[in-house]
Structures are given as structure tokens and as C-alpha cells.
Amino acid sequence: MMPTLTTANSKSVLTGAHFLDGDQAACEGALAAGANFAAGYPITPSTEIVERFASRIPTVGGIFLQMEDELASSIAVVGAAWGGAKVFTVTSGPGFSLMMEHLGYAAMTETPLVLVDVQRGGPSTGLPTLPGQADMMQARWGSHGDYEVIALCPNSPQECFDLMIDAFNLAEEYRTPVLMMMDESVGHMTEKVVIPPAEEIKILPRRYTSLPPSEYLPFRPGADGIPEMVKAGDGYRIHVTGLTHDEQGYPAMNWQAQRKLVGRLVKKIRDNADRITRWEEHQVDDAEVVMVAYGITSRVAKRAIQLARAEGLRAGLLRPVVVWPFPEKRVRELAGRVHSFLVVEMNYGQMFYEVERCAGGRARTELLGHGGGMVHEPEEILQALREAAK
Amino acid sequence: MSTLPMVNPVEPFLRTDRMPHIWCPGCGIGTTVNCFARALVESKLPLDKVALVSGIGCTGRVAGYVRLDSFHTTHGRAIPFATGLKLSNPNLNVVVYSGDGDLIAIGGNHFIHAARRNVDITVICVNNFIYGMTGGQTAPTTPIGATATTSPYGCFERPFNLPFLAESSGAVYVARWTAFHVRHIAHSMVEAIHKKGFSFIEILAPCPTLYQRRNKMGDGLETMHFYKQHSVIKNGARTREVDINLQGEIVVGKFVDIERPTLQQTMDQQLRQTLREQYAGPGGV
């Protein structure tokens, strides 16, 4: 059963209007959401999030631990979640790669957690201090094996705060790791961030079972496909493993168990994709060319719309706020009536393929991509819009 | 005929519905689990407050067989998982139970850092000198000259001396036994579980299928004879002097038992001292 929504703890919420960068705002979002345990390893451009958490959490009640690497950070938070904490970790580029095994472990063990990736230019060490958006497919497919994730993509410090709360709530609702796919520009830009009073912030508590140990099976799904949780020390003597397991949590090395478990892990997100996915539209109603852009790029795209409309080119923008699951129904609908899609992203084609797939040949899909390091110029988007409108 | 007890005294501590286990005949891991169950009885800890964390490998399967809150994690990462678990839920007694490859090769960095921090956990390392689960490859504990599938002409790398590594990294309790020393193991486990801080027990155990057979050291029973003949109990021995050779003397005993504030204590003290009344504590459940 879904627990009743509660409100945020006033001690952790910094109510008021602030001037914050995206990293700091994301940290405040985590605190407002009730995060009381974070582990991290320093990596540009994400470090400010944990620096702020390390400074704030002792006055709120909780723990920050700087671990020896990203492998340790990403599994320490899983351990802390099973101890009863609300947890997150934060990284970028190379650290995100190192965390992939534990993203899969969290998906397999249905551990609620939030993983923030402040994207920089890659591959490898790439451009530590400059923006990129090239981890979008890694977010979706980065760990081995089959699973589904939820990933959110803020385009302002305000959204870094707001979406962090949503990320925690989604992690609890679906018992799954949730990714916050920021980018360096959003992480380091400073803007006004309004933090509401604690009583206006809705928090979904962990889905703890009310069953006694004798009746409880840790991985028996409820009607919505999601099992109720317990924490260590409560007398349930649970077993949790990354091996394929049955409802009792015991390893089960056969295709039937694999199909049942992994099928459910995928289905619990896919069946709720319409509820989870979210997007924002700008001047799409009459648009002949619809841009698809997210994160910092979506803000440049808005300027390009102004330039295009000034010369009579009807451009619009679809901005996925939740990028995974992808708003594919909406793209399919638009494909039936727009002339073309233009995907603008700081990579050489990632979400582009998703848009092209959903367009299904009914609308031309073009890519305006580059390897990161700087955001697109409105003028180069305008030029691409002109081409896409032809 | 006299009546024999029908229930093995360690049965209440095991997930008997998961038997038979996967371990080979003559393997030493089951012996250590038996010792662990006896240690839990002797420790008088409420079992609901004991959590066991394993990594991957033959010893990594221990988590699946004990009737405790038990976590079978990823390869090498049992210790950082346990660190998060312990800090978020400080009333738990957290025991990491894993093998030499898991804890010291792929997980070696976490081992030294957890010892340095003095996280209040117990680490039990069953050292069989080999990778068992994957079929007998070289481990960072394989003695020079021993053969393994990936050292077919004999291992030429110097192995880690685990008690020395643990002590020099900051462990407050360090002991080594062999699977022959069942009473000593159980006693050390009780001490280690009650010890505040990072406690470490190395248990040498036979892998007759892959290590002993390949190195012509006989079966499990012969290995027990070998342990009996070659072990020398030297409590308080200098850990730098307890290296293990292929056929030589095996120094066993309790080597280290000191006091040092735990990670939680130093964290709490530092934050309280600096933040005073602003300090809200570590949270926890």
C-alpha cells in the first residue's frame, strides 16, 4: 500500500528566496526531501553539492561521508538505505561510469536512492569544468543487464531544487534508483531559487510493510508490482542479493525466476511511464519545426524560437523534464502533424535516436549536436531550424 | 540405542531451507560458519540486531545461509556497504564475511580505508589462497611457488600478509586462525564482535578442489593435519613477521587488541566540539 504523503521537516528546509547555483539548490532539494545520508567522492563539477551537504547536514541530523572512491560512495548509500536512511550520491563523468555497477545493484535489489550526475564533457577525463550532455544514454543503459530507470533533467537552479524532491519521491514510490541528470552549466549557474515553507513540500515516506515477519516476503510485489520494504534490525531477517532471486529474496538460478523478477523490474516502470514522464512545451501548437532539448540547451532553444518566429519560421520546443521514461507518446502525436523535429543536445546524438524512433519516419528528425564544452549559440540553432523547415 | 539430539545446535542460525549449500566437500568455509553460529550464541547479542554483509565468491555466499539480516552485495564492496549500513543504523552489529580475493584484491582499497577510519564493524576473511568460485585463479594471497590456473608455472608475486596490512591500516583487533582452530575462531569472533572499532579475523581454510589438489597438498582432512602440524600459536606476535609460505610455519593467534575511538565517536566529537548546540547528531534510526 502506498503510504500517505507527509510534509517536509521544517528543520531541513531553508524556506525563503535565495541566490543559489544549481549544485547548491540540488543539495537544498535533497535536504528538503529528507535525505539524511550521503556519501560522495570529489569530482568537478558536482562537488559543491556534497560540500554543502557536509556543511548543512550536521545541523539538520544525518551523516555525510566522503568515501575513498565512487565505487564505495555508490554502495555505501545502498547500505545506508537498507539501514533506514534516505540517501543520495553525487558525481560526474568518470565517477558516473564507476557507479554503474551499483546502479544495477540498486535496481535489482529495489533500493530507493537518488544519483546525481552533473554532466561534463567526455569521454574519459574529457572537460572537467565544461558542460556536456553525453551521459543520457548511459543513464538509461549504463549498467549491464535489463532494467528501467527514472531520470530527471533540470534546466535551472530552481528546478534543481524542485526536481530533487520529485526524484526522492519517485525513488520511494517505485523503489528504484532515480537519476538527476544535470549539466555543468545548470550546476554552476546562479539564479533566484524560492524554497517554499516545509508544510508545502510533499514527501512520500518509505513503503515499509505493516506485515509481521511471519507473513512478510521481501520481494513479493503488491498489486502495483512494487514490494514493501523493511530495514535491517527490525526482526525480519531478510536476505538481499544482486543474484536473480525469488520473492523471499533467495537466489534462484533459472530462467523462470529471471523472467519473473527482471520482467517485473522493467514493468513496474514501463506500466507507469505515463504517470512518471513529464515535459514542458513552448509554442508547439502551431509549430512546423519542434525542437527537442533539455537541460541548459532547452534555454538556448527558447531564444532560438524568438529569433525564428521573428522571421516567420514557426518553431516550438518540447522539453523533457523527465527524460527516462521518455515522453514517447507525445512525440508520436506530434510526429503526425509537424514538418520536422530538431534535436539540440550537447552530444553527437543520444536523445536524437529516441526522438527519431518515436517519430517513426512520419516527421523528419534532425540533430544539432556537438561534443560539449560550450552551450549552443542561438544563431546556430536558428540556422538549423531554417534547414529543418525546408 | 541412546537418543541423539535431532537438531544441530547451529541450525537456528542457518537458513536451513537453503540447504544443501554450494560448498565442496572438505571446504573450510562451512567450518567457519559453524564457529560463527557458536560465537553468536556465546556473544549473547540479540540476533535481530546482527547484520551480515558479504561480497562475491565462495565465502560471499555466507550471507545467503545465515538466518540474519544478510546482504550479498557486489564484488569487493561488502565493506563500504557495511559502512553505510552501520552508520545509518548504529544499533546494528555489522559483520562482513567474505573471501581473500573479494576483500583484499578487488576490495582492497575499501579494506584499508575502513581500517583507517576505524568503522565499528567486524571483518571475517576466509583465506583459501585462491579464487574458488571462478575456478582456481591467482589471488593476492597465493603463496610464491603455488600454482593456480592463471599461475600455471607457479605464482611469482609476493602475497599480502593480511594481519600486517590490517594492523598498519588501523585495525584495533587482529587475529588469525586456521579452520583447524575451531574453538579459537569462535572465541576470537566473540571478542571481535564486541570490540568497538574495525576488528579483523583471518581464517585460513582449505579449498581442496582447487588449491590443495592443484598443489598436491591432499584433501580437506590432510589439510587439517597440515594446519595442526604447521601452526604455531603466538598471541601478540609482531604482524610484520607473520608472512605465510607455501609449506612453512603458520603463525596464528590474536596479534592486536588495542583501543582507538571509532569513526562514529570521532565524527560525533569533532562535530559537537565545533558546532556546539547547533549539532543535531548523526540522525539514525
Protein described:
The complex is a heterodimer of chains A (390) and B (285). Chain A is α/β, with parallel strands linked by helices. Chain A has 2 domains: 6-203, Thiamin diphosphate (ThDP)-binding fold, Pyr/PP domains (Rossmann fold), CATH 3.40.50.970; 280-389, Rossmann fold (3-Layer(aba) Sandwich). Chain A has helices at 22-33, 47-60, 70-83, 93-98, 100-109, 136-141, 157-174, 184-188, 255-270, 273-276, 296-310, 328-335, 351-359, 378-389, and strands at 6-7, 16-21, 37-40, 63-66, 87-91, 113-121, 127-131, 150-152, 177-183, 190-195, 202-203, 239-241, 278-282, 289-292, 315-324, 340-345, 364-369. In chain A, the strands form 3 sheets. In chain A, strands 3, 4, 5, 6, 7, 8, 9, 13, 14, 15, 16 and 17 form a 12-stranded mixed beta sheet that branches. Chain A has a two-stranded antiparallel sheet with strand order 1-11. In chain A, helix 1 runs parallel beside helix 7 and helix 12 (328-335) crosses helix 13 (351-359). The longest helix of chain A is centred in the middle third of the chain and has 18 residues, at 157-174. Chain A is globular, with a radius of gyration of 21 Å. Chain A starts with 5 loop residues before the first strand and ends with a helix. Chain B has 285 residues and is an alpha/beta fold. Chain B contains 9 helices and 10 strands. Chain B has helices at 29-43, 78-88, 100-106, 108-117, 162-169, 182-194, 208-212, 220-230, 263-275; strands at 50-54, 69-72, 93-99, 122-127, 130-131, 137-138, 173-178, 199-204, 231-233, 250-257. In chain B, strand 5 and strand 6 form a beta hairpin. Chain B is globular and about 65 Å long. The chains are: A alpha/beta (390), B alpha/beta (285). Chains A and B meet through helix 2, helix 3, helix 5 and strand 12 of A and strand 2, helix 2, helix 4 and helix 9 of B.
- What's the CATH class of the largest domain in chain A, please? Alpha Beta
Q: Element order, helices and strands of chain B?
A: HEEHEHHEEEHEHEHHEEH
Question: How much beta of chain B, percentage-wise?
Answer: 15-25%
- Specify the overall morphology of chain B: globular
Number of strands of chain A: 17
SS-based class of chain A: alpha/beta
Mean pLDDT of chain B: 96
Per CATH, the architecture of chain B is 3-Layer(aba) Sandwich
Could you give a short account of the major beta sheet of chain B? Answer: 8 strands, mixed
CATH superfamily of the largest domain in chain A: Thiamin diphosphate (ThDP)-binding fold, Pyr/PP domains
Q: Biggest chain pair contact, residues each?
A: A-B, 47 and 46 residues
Distance between the termini of chain B: 53 Å
What name does CATH use for the topology of the largest domain in chain A? Answer: Rossmann fold
In CATH, the architecture of the largest domain in chain A is 3-Layer(aba) Sandwich
**Largest β-sheet summary of chain A:** 12 strands, mixed
- Quote the CATH topology of chain B: Rossmann fold
How many distinct folded domains of chain B?
A: 1
Which range best describes the helical content of chain B: under 10%, 10-25%, 25-40%, 40-55%, 55-70% or over 70%?
25-40%
